[in-house]
Amino acid sequence: MSTAVSRFPHLRQDLAASLVVFLVALPLCVGVAVASGVPAELGLVTGIVGGLVTGLLPGSSLQVSGPAAGLTVLVFEAVDTYGLPALGVIVLATGLLQLAMGALRLGRWFRAISLSVVEGMLAGIGLVLIAGQLYAAAGLPAPASGVDKILGLPGAAADALGSTEALASLAVGAGTVAVMVLWRRMPGPAGAVPGALAAVLLATAVTLAFGVPVATVEVQGLLDAVQPPGADVFGGLETGILGTIVAFTLIASAESLFSAAAVDRLHDGPRTQYNKELMAQGAGNTVCGVLGALPMTAVIVRSSANVRAGARTRASRVLHGVWLLLFAALLPSALALIPLPALAGILVHAGWKLIPFRAVAALWRSHRGEALILVVTAVSIVVVNMFEGVLIGLALSVAKTAWEASQAKLEVIDKGAGPVQVYLSGNATFLRLPKILDTLESLPTNRPVELDLTGLHHMDHACHTALRNWSDRHSTPGTAPVKLREAPVSTQ
């Protein structure tokens, strides 16, 4: 015993933390799988791999990985479009890309992605997730697109009001959300039980005790649910799947590395090594792909629970994977008792937490451009799709940065006699060129003009060419040509 304590001095703390994380992860793994349109067991498989594979690898010592609500919408669309067998190929390719990016030391570049784009991405996912799970809570089929899900809610509400079964199902879902919101206020030992687990247990007990007519989780068995992609799947893939793979890679990597930064702020232990963490996520997703399971990311809910429970080393996240494996192997039939509207309620709550209401309000007060990027990204994901919505957000972020970097000041001094003096300073780029040319072309053509460019830090090729052309053709015959004063600034 003393030898074990000396080798693992924090074993007691890590063991206790692993049990807490297991209890938090269990309902979320099952709920994410069901909402993604795949067998519930595949969510457990991803959680197990997140503990036993990614958990053993270096990167972020206290961060916990598994299936994430943030990828639910994208997984559902991929399975609906390409079929469940193709999911393993997509996740495998995602993992290999993450391994390559980590090996090329690109992990830190994900930290350069605008926070507004990431929060907008999560907000868009949250909106679609909430809308879709409201249908699931009522036991009704959900429309395919995000817009149709939201626009169809009034009609779904009318249908639910006319059905006793739908109202009973909604009551279970609403009760689950209420328990999760109120559970944190529970005093004593009860408050230490994760709210999601307590909500699922209570919902299961109520539906069994009162015979509430609700759908429950379908159980296949762990080995039956695991379906590695065969050679025939690789041969039948469409080229359009490449965009889905890129979307999986971008979103899973960004969410994991942003989560790592957040977890680092919660503890005083070793800091995250971003390239190694990206490779750890890649290794986990590669294994998940081989097993035909859900994609994984680092999950802030499980990670923060791990830190708050007193975890000290990566042993806690490895042990949580062991507990998930034991549950999946010994008690799989217990999943069949869980009501689907209870899982829908958990995901409605998770989707709500993905929407950064406070961040939007704070950004609107201080950085309205960033708030606009966040909102446009979220709306684009709802209206178009995940991949194109994120690209729209990234494009807006780059355009905003370019516009702000292109700050050029134009000052005209006309004393009524002698040459008109014009001073251009700052950064002259094509984005500011229309305004600069409008001012220059309004100058009198029958007076000498001196254009001083020595105050410029940067001038792009388009601006340099346009100013040269203007100076060559501005003056009327008999008037001294424009006098240019240039400094050796960059014109790349």
What this model shows, in words?
There is one protein chain. The protein has about 500 residues and is an alpha/beta fold. It has 2 domains: about 10-400, no CATH class; about 405-485, Transcription Regulator spoIIAA. The protein contains 22 helices and 6 strands. The strands form 2 sheets. It has a 4-stranded mixed sheet, with helices on one face. Helix 6 packs antiparallel against helix 20 (about 385-405). It is elongated and about 100 Å long. The relative contact order is 0.17.
Summarize the structure.
This protein is of the alpha/beta class and 492 residues long. Helices cover 63% and strands 7% of the residues. The relative contact order is 0.17.
Number of helices: 22
- The number of E-state strands comes to 6
* Helix content estimate: 55-70%
If strands are numbered along the chain, what order do they take across the biggest sheet? Answer: 3-4-5-6
Stretches with pLDDT under 50, minimum 5 residues:
none
Q: What order do the SSEs take from the amino end to the carboxyl end, as H and E?
A: HHHEHHHHHHHHHHHEHHHHHHEEHEHE
What is the strand content?
Answer: 5-15%
Describe the main β-sheet briefly.
Answer: 4 strands, mixed
**Tally of discrete structural domains:** 2
State the shape. elongated
Separation of the first and last Cα atoms? 67 Å
Transmembrane segments: 15-35, 42-62, 82-104, 116-140, 160-183, 195-215, 283-301, 321-350, 371-396
Protein name: Transmembrane transport protein
InterPro entries: SLC26A/SulP_dom, SLC26A/SulP_fam
Main location: membrane
